[in-house]
Amino acid sequence: MRLLTATIAAGALLLAGCGQDDDERETTGNATESAEATPSATPSTPASPAPTPAEPAGPPEVVEEIATGLEAPWGLAFLPNGDALVTERDTRRLLRISGPDHAVTEIATIDSAAPEGEAGLLGVAVSPTFAEDSLVYLYVTTAEDNRVVRAPLSGDRLGDQEPMLTGIPNGFIHDGGRLQFGPDGYLYVSTGEIGEGPLAQERDGLAGKVLRITPDGQPAPGNPFDTPVWSWGHRNVQGLAFDDAGTLWASEFGQDEFDELNRIDAGANYGWPEVEGEGGADQGFTDPQQVWNPDDSSPSGLAYLDGHLWMAALKGERLWRVRVDGRRAVEPEGFFIGEYGRVRTVAAAPDGGLWVMTSNRDGRGSPGEDDDKILLVQP
Length: 379
Known about the structure:
Layout: H1 8-18, E1 32-33, E2 61-67, E3 73-78, E4 84-88, E5 93-98, E6 103-109, E7 121-126, H2 130-133, E8 135-141, E9 146-154, E10 157-158, E11 162-168, E12 179-181, E13 187-190, E14 209-213, E15 229-232, E16 237-242, E17 248-252, E18 259-264, E19 290-292, E20 299-305, E21 308-313, E22 318-325, E23 328-335, E24 343-348, E25 354-358, E26 374-378
Antiparallel strand pairs: 1-19, 2-26, 3-4, 4-5, 5-6, 7-8, 8-9, 9-10, 9-11, 12-13, 13-14, 14-15, 16-17, 17-18, 18-19, 20-21, 21-22, 22-23, 24-25, 25-26
């Protein structure tokens, strides 16, 4: 395993020395809009753009606390009946939130997970054919690697876990971890470069990538390099979301200057560590659609709803709304700034609302009495 094997102090030095996540960086600046990103030779989206959305009626509003008292929750996915599955990074627990009273039930502890730093039990996704196969997918940091596993879910019982994709490099930082099934039925997986930037430029490696695999863990048909790799040159992708036109979007931690919102095209190289933020197009890299000062963002989860991308911000302690205009992401606007602390995950619920998850007990926040929470937001 590529976890730090020195002392806890050595781990702290690593975090402080290179600003890997969201709380170690001090910069200034504002969100900016990138020039049109260079399209990939193999676009991942249909030719027809998404329709231009109507303007929202007003700012989003928190209307309910779905759950409280969670411990560093990370992943969130909905079952066909509207119940939600939630992972906790450090406790390794898989929870189910069910019914109109939002009862929280512990389904399982994932014993293979080895939490340390940013690693642990991370993303969760529900099979698009759950009604037939009852399968749940998890992104797990083990003692040897990051991996994608799946297991059948029957009621509140999780069956035996089956490895689907193994050998993703792991580390104390930058483990990626988001899972998202696409409209094509394939599973998209975000990975980080574990603090070793050159790994992101190893095209056939699994670190610093967005991966695309079949539900059985094989490289998906049509992948640009006949490997699991869909896009490369990423530092640490933390959020994945598809819009109505099938375009894939990703939120990504920068280092010292620019966090990013990227439109993901098949085979495209997003430049890390050669480029941070904009300015890579002349070198054959794909520029981001939006960039932020890390103090204002440090983006994590991403969701799409009603013509907008909704992006969670950790250090920025806010929820970003970004309008999707065809294949462009424009007009970012932040909400709830500083009101709920660090925001880890956002997901579009089946009833049309947004579930927004805080992350104040992840070792970098200042937890309140009821943290962590899942908030119901009316967009």
